[in-house]
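Minimal example, chain plus guanosine-5'-monophosphate.
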Amino acid sequence: MARRVLPVASVAGRAYVDCALHYDRLGFRVWTDSGLRVALSVPPPGTASSHWSHGNLMDFHKPRYTPMSRRRRIYEGKAKVLYEGPEPGTLIQHFKDDATAFNAKKHQVIEGKGVLNNRISEYVFQHLNDIGVPTHFIRRLNMREQLIREVEIIPLEVVVRNVAAGSLSQRLGIEEGTQLPRSIIEFYYKNDALGDPMVSEEHITAFGWATPQEIDDVMALAIRVNDFLSGLFLGVGIRLVDFKMECGRLWENEMMRIVVADEISPDSCRLWDIKSNEKLDKDRFRRDLGGLLEAYAEVAKRLGIMSEGERPQGTGPVLVKG
Ligand code: 5GP
């Protein structure tokens, strides 16, 4: 049995230090840590790589459902839950109806939000895949869930800004709505206890959250995603003010590449109607503007995901805590 000490391995946003590497009975390479078993999509030695990517053994497009009650929950975040997937190296990403802001100090359940985010994020990720931007997305499974590849989440929130708004406006005193001279990329350290502080490349490399090469890859992806999203939304009368994305390390054989992970939805973007500047994003919740579900449904309708006649499902927001 081989054992290797990892500097920091993080799975689904959690950091695991000092993982041990084993081969299980079927020859899967498996990392273990404190009794937690994490199967990565790495083939046993001597296995043809085609079996493990898009080859005949792993057919991601064949439906294989595990009843909810028998699924193993890997991670629960504020708006999503990750479950063990049907194949090694896959996870199921479940979208909840919870809306949180200000580091979860504000929290409501908005029935139907998860369904809309699942559909909108599917649309964005499928298009990114189609144009050759690598992502964790495989396919949507149902109204609230999608099948994704398991990646090591890089503990950074990557924010791309085209127009001044939110924390940039507050921090630098720039009026909201001011067009920026060029798109700006910022990094925030994903850490709820610290309130996701802004960090520089120096912090990222010094603390080992990502290497300089990985930062270059992340920035290249961020620029491509921004170009694609800006055009996509402009085409349906929406200005992409800014957005947050996350990236992960995807291991294929001994190769690793950086892919876009998590979600891209009105929860993680600022989207303004091009004519009226009406907000069609989570600021409706953050700023108590109301009509969040209708705004998300409007985005879905304009993208052609929801038909004109369809109404968003939901009984309205339910206050969880103040
Ligand atoms: P700001 O730094 O202005 O608050 O946010 C910039 C952009 O990143 C906005 O589109 C905002 O929705 C998104 N963003 C920042 N932090 C988070 C986060 O923790 N979760 C989500 N879903 N989006 C975030």
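Residues 1-58 have pLDDT under 50 and may be disordered. The first helix runs from residue 113 to 130.
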